[in-house]
Write a structure and sequence with these properties.
The protein is mainly alpha-helical. It is 66% helix and 0% strand. The chain folds into two domains: 45 residues, no CATH class; 57 residues, lambda repressor-like DNA-binding domains (434 Repressor (Amino-terminal Domain)), CATH 1.10.260.
């Protein structure tokens, strides 16, 4: 039992030495800037792990995902339940205008999507989910 306590004490001591550096990346998110930084880092890590599988990166991805979800649960209200309404909500929250989304289609196409006259296609859903860092389910 003493051996286990010593191992734990050593582990905590070593962790505390690097903790100031670790908390620059892994820490509870309190501000929108911290949230945006975490989302950007998460995107970069996902790209990195897609190139080279790495259990350490995957663990960090899981941890950042949990911290981001916690922030969103506390600070981001749930959007409407229809795809067009969800897109309107996300555009408003991110200060995005129709003209900022040319990859989705013309302004006429986007107006039809926002009004519910047209449905999003798979390509548009993929692009929007990546742009707004949300699940594709938000647009289905």
């Amino acid at each position: 039992m003493t051996m286990i306590k010593n191992d734990i004490h050593t582990c905590v001591t070593e962790t505390l030495k690097v903790w100031p550096e670790v908390t620059r990346i892994v820490s509870t998110l309190h501000t929108e800037d911290q949230y945006n930084t975490a989302v950007t880092l998460l995107d970069e890590l996902i790209d990195q792990v897609n190139i080279n599988e790495d259990v350490n990166i995957e663990s960090l991805i899981d941890t950042l995902g949990t911290l981001i979800k916690d922030y969103e649960d506390r600070n981001v209200p749930e959007p409407d339940t229809d795809p067009g309404g969800n897109l309107k909500y996300l555009m408003r929250e991110h200060h995005v205008k129709q003209s900022d989304l040319p990859e989705i289609g013309s302004q006429g196409v986007l107006s039809e999507i926002l009004s519910g006259k047209r449905k999003l296609n798979v390509r548009q859903i993929r692009l929007l989910s990546k742009r707004f860092h949300v699940s594709p389910a938000v647009f289905i």
